[in-house]
Specification:
mainly alpha, Growth Hormone, Chain: A, globular, 80% helix
Length: 454
Amino acid sequence: MQSSSSPAHTAKPHPWLAALNNYRDWRLLYIFLLGCSSGFPFVLIGSNLSGWLTDSGIARAQVGLLYSVFAVYAINFLWAPLLDRVRLLGVCRWLGLRRGWIFTLQAIMLGATLLLAGLNPDKDLLLLSLLALLIATCSATHDIAIDAYRIDIIGKDANKVPAASAVSIVGWWTGYSLPGYLAFANADAIGWDGVYLWMAAILALLMVFTLVVREPISDRRALQQAAELRYQGMLDAGNSPWAKAVVWLTVTVVEPFAEFFRRNGVRLALSILLFVFLFKIGEAFLGRMSIVFYREVGYSNEQIAHYSKLVGWGLTILFTLVGSTINIRYGIVRGLFIGGVAMAASNLMFAWIALAGPKESLFLAAIVVDNFCAAFSTVAFVSLLTWLTGRAFSGAQYALLASLGSLGRTTLASGSGFLVDALNGNWALFFVLTAVMVIPGLILLVVIGKKLRD
């Protein structure tokens, strides 16, 4: 018989309520604000630029080719180690390592955006492309710092990671969709040059967000110093300036990638990298040509603004939070597989639009299905990459994984316009092919998931 002094039995909360409790964390607000900053540059050189060039009469093959500037996202891991180790003079001392890099790169993008506003695509296409490349490079670099900020401030708690990933994605889509909605809703009234002046004002607001958030506290520097001592012994380096420089360079450039392979094993590490490369190619092919498709099939800029941007933003937020809760409840790998299958199937909705024509009800249905599937798979994808990242070199290792995903999504998908031309403008067949592209990644996920469980 239980004593009256014994503590009463406390019932465990329902699993779904326990999953939702992971969102009661003030750090998620900071992750959301920086997520907005991460998504916004994609408006500048993505949908806005595509709409501007299409309205200016630029050929769709050239529009698709201009997306090759996103290739810098695929190679940003080459300089990512610097963001884990190099502190910008003055700025990083004032704001900290992560925020210092983010703020500086936002300032450069602000200047480039103001220059873009004064260009004419018909006459200044080369300069426009160079400015787009500059913005893409700064954006890809400040994404390294933003992703590392999220990993540093939230840790690797199995339940917190999906919640942090979801909030980051919600922030990304907020920074992408709301400004995108404003752009397309007002492009006909104020012109695309006026739109880019608005975009510059939004970028200035995002810089204020960077000043508001707190710098994360982590054991990164202690772990890096331990790695330096280990390499100093391995290289038999003394205390001379040259020896210290060699050790510093080795730890900065080699150790982030060596530690990833050492921790996972070579075979599993290579399988992970190949999966990350292949998983979202089909989605990227669809995304690169979506604005061109909407315009060619007969939808107006206002319809694109309302359904693709505004409605799509709300749906993405809802479905991202739902998807992250499911991932907390049932596991990241299982959620990622379900999301991948659904993502491939959702591409067929756009094939239906290509056959049926510009019906608003069908457009809305396609946006609902596509945003649900994309949000569900993306939160699981980001959670998996975060979980696979080490703490000492969070910026470099996450960038390695994310850049490989970008390599598949940008370099291959930049030829999406040529593929549509090769199909003689058969949009329905194009979207069927994008659905088939998901299958190799799903097969690899089955293999990786088994190894990770083992």
